[in-house]
Amino acid sequence: MRSRQVLPIAFLTLALVAGACSSGGSSSATADNGKLHVVAAENFWGSIAAQLGGDRATVKSIITNPDTDPHDYEATAADGRTVASAKYVIVNGIGYDPWASKLLAANPASGRLQLNVGDAVGVKPGGNPHRWYSPPDVQKVIDQITADYKRLAPGDAAFFDRQRATFISTGLARYKGLVADIRTKYSGVPVGASESIFTPLADALGLKLITPESFLDAISEGGEPAAADKSAIENQIRNHQIKVYVFNRQNSTPDVQSQVALAKAQGIPVSSVTETLEPANASFQEWQADQLQSLESALAKATGK
Hints:
By secondary structure, this protein is α/β, with parallel strands linked by helices.
């Protein structure tokens, strides 16, 4: 994975101890206002957690700035204090946010539940960590968060079941509709991408992602892509072997920028995605649906469907 810098564990431990003392070290599953205190490492999971929790949970996401690269994030003392008082913490795992695991390890707490998304969806270390771009895995996370909320606050179990049902049927309606529509209309269409963040979504949509996997991984992990891979992608673009090119705006390296420019010059529609919510105050489903709408428009332009 790309290099990541984290604060020394001793410093984090001191920060967490201070945070625990300032919060009174409560072992209750709820905060002083009676709500579940939830922390998510990234705001895409935090948005889902907040909607499932409704007025029975307060959710704090650590990474909220679209300009922040979650891979390279450096945990702060404030993050330590935030985690120290939480009774439910959501981390992505799969090597995506090791800084979050360090925060938790520095402050073991009795009664605190932790959701590691990688574990919940069955993706082992070394696998593709971008599970929020997998609609089936998003559903698994929704189910697990609901189950964990009910475990932490059993008296509100019926409420959390209703929140889940409403979120799935109403909140995710446009998102799910776009996924189904794109899969129906464009399954099998060859596309290119800048990195592996798009792979889970391409799989769910039935798109044929033909970019060399080694290139996708190199860009995602901050490595130097092989010259042969770059040449292969340029040939795919020049020969119109792909219908649409998708790139991550938050990780647009010179190689990616060159491919975007070439695709546009060749008349190949370009669409984009981001790592985290954009704008930062968008909901998970608004963000994802807007990106899917843009992708569908690009596919329609490219195929005439």
